[in-house]
Design a protein that fits this description.
The chain is globular, with a radius of gyration of 17 Å. The chain is 29% helix and 17% strand. The two termini are 12 Å apart. Helix 1 crosses helix 2. The strands form 2 sheets. Strands 1-10-9-6-2-3-5 form a 7-stranded parallel sheet, with helices on one face. It is an alpha/beta fold. Strand 9, helix 7 and strand 10 form a beta-alpha-beta unit. It contains 7 helices and 10 strands. It binds 2-phosphoglycolic acid. The site of 2-phosphoglycolic acid has 6 residues, from loops.
């Protein structure tokens, strides 16, 4: 199904359950790597990708898929958290994916949130993506406020990798990943919306009723910086895969 007025109208797939969404996205990732063993993947963290990676690990084992030559770039990382912090996205990626496939960790990059010079880290991240030939397939979740990566509402559509302030709602939504008594950092390093839009192909996954307003705004609202994910309608190859609950407020 294709929706939306102005813009290019992402392809929309509405599936019955979170498990089906996870399997559909995992299949896209697996097919990309099977077709091109040197694929450059853009990866995401959070509750939505967790079952996606679980399904991908199973598919990789079943199909004897090798990630040895794959390169990956994660969307974002908290400022101030090192890779050994249990709530860091670098740690999430090892625990939920990298430790269970044969990817070379030297080719799997996550922004360094403890770099002495965060501006230099952001510039080097952009350079590394360009030197890898750009991202082939970018996986995205979506925040309840419409954010993609940590590009909160108000982020420019041409933004690049940079340090951003996190919205209070985002810090609250992510607080469950942090040890009791520890607060969520106020800042993150994130690929920009412009960085994301440079990917050749984008798949956004959304599950649960709490994502329904953001999915409706993304596909059927105005294309505006107030809903960062609405920028995806400016891209020619986007698939949005959601469960029924997340699609419930679409016209
Ligand atoms: P979630 O986060 O998958 O944990 O809901 C998505 C996001 O904030 O991009």
């Amino acid at each position: 199904m294709r929706l939306g007025g102005m813009g290019m109208a992402p392809e929309l797939m509405v599936l019955d359950s979170e498990a089906e969404v996870a399997m559909a996205v995992a299949r896209r990732l697996a097919a990309t790597v099977a077709q091109m063993p040197t694929a450059v993947l853009g990866l995401a963290t959070g509750g939505t990708p967790m079952p996606i990676y679980k399904a991908l690990i199973a598919l990789a084992a079943e199909k004897r898929l090798s990630f040895r030559m794959v390169r990956s770039f994660n969307l974002d990382e908290y400022v101030g958290l090192s890779a050994s912090h249990p709530a860091s996205f670098a740690h999430f990626m090892r625990e939920n994916l990298f430790d269970h496939i044969d990817i070379d960790l030297a080719r799997a990059r996550v922004p360094n949130g403890v770099a002495a010079d965060l501006g230099a880290e952001a510039a080097s991240y952009e350079r590394a993506i360009a030197e890898a030939g750009g991202i082939g397939l970018q996986i995205l979740g979506i925040g309840a406020n419409g954010h993609i990566g940590f590009n909160e509402p108000g982020s420019a559509f041409n933004s690049r990798t940079r340090v951003v302030d996190l919205a209070e709602a985002t810090r609250q939504a992510n607080s469950s990943y942090f040890p009791a008594g520890e607060s969520v950092p106020g800042q993150a390093l994130t690929m920009g919306i412009g960085t994301i839009l440079n990917a050749r192909e984008i798949v956004l996954a959304a599950t649960g009723a709490h994502k329904a307003p953001a999915i409706a705004a993304t596909l059927a609202g105005p294309i505006t910086i107030d809903c960062p994910a609405s920028a995806l309608r400016l891209h020619a190859r986007v698939t949005i895969i959601c469960d029924r609950a997340a699609a419930a407020q679409l016209p």
